[in-house]
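Deliverable D4.2, example record:
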Amino acid sequence: MIQIGKINTLEILRETDHGVYLVDADNDEVLLPNRYVPETFKIWDKLDVFVYLDNEERPVATTDMPYIKLGEFALLRCNAVTQHGAFLDWGLVKELFCPFKEQAFPMKPKGWYLVYCYLDEKTGRLAASSKTNQFLSNKELTVNAFDEVDLIVSHPSDIGLNVIVNKVHTGLIYNDHLFTQLSVGDKLKGIVKKIRPGNKLDIVLGQIGYRSIEPNAQRILHELHDNSGYLNLTDNSSPEAIKEQLQMSKKNFKKAIGSLYKQKQIDIKPDGIYLV
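Output generated by the structure prediction step:
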């Protein structure tokens, strides 16, 4: 079955004036318009195509790959707002529609919004929603404490940044664990620091406890090599100075330099750290 909103691997069945028809294993067909047909091809060649509905609500294939597919999150630019809703640039000729009822806040042209791509059951069309939390759930967790997870920055709050965890859960990075500037839509790795009552996920960037010693130690070694073997930081340096220079907390910094000192890789003097 040809899947709307997904990448399909289909075979070229026949050529027409409008393009070539592609077919799947169930003999379902879809048109690949001329603008996307390869310059050279043979019948039964396989193509990877994205399938969606055209302006006349007919399935159509394209070799262009969109910025977002069915069931995914992405940061998209709003091109226009009409009486029907917003239209977003997702990398295809036909723009992605976001109904007013699916807008967390009213969208404006040229604005950027984190959205989820879903299939409208009434129309069969792909659509976008910036009310992303409705597509996430922490009822049954698929992660454990200390797991590495994929994150998408969702939206800020007074106490930190809300993030989408592995595309299925919600999590929070507290302000005191933010050591780098992040923006909505950023994609990065994190660690589940703690699972609180109600399956609430506390997330940190980097690793925890003894797991953090190696990566942070590596970062310090890189900084030392980039600064001729010297860093103007010590145990007595302020948390702000450490955060500005190394993007880590003072606690993790002390653990890391302690590890490096024991390994005889650095020397700690009153005026700073020296590479041995």
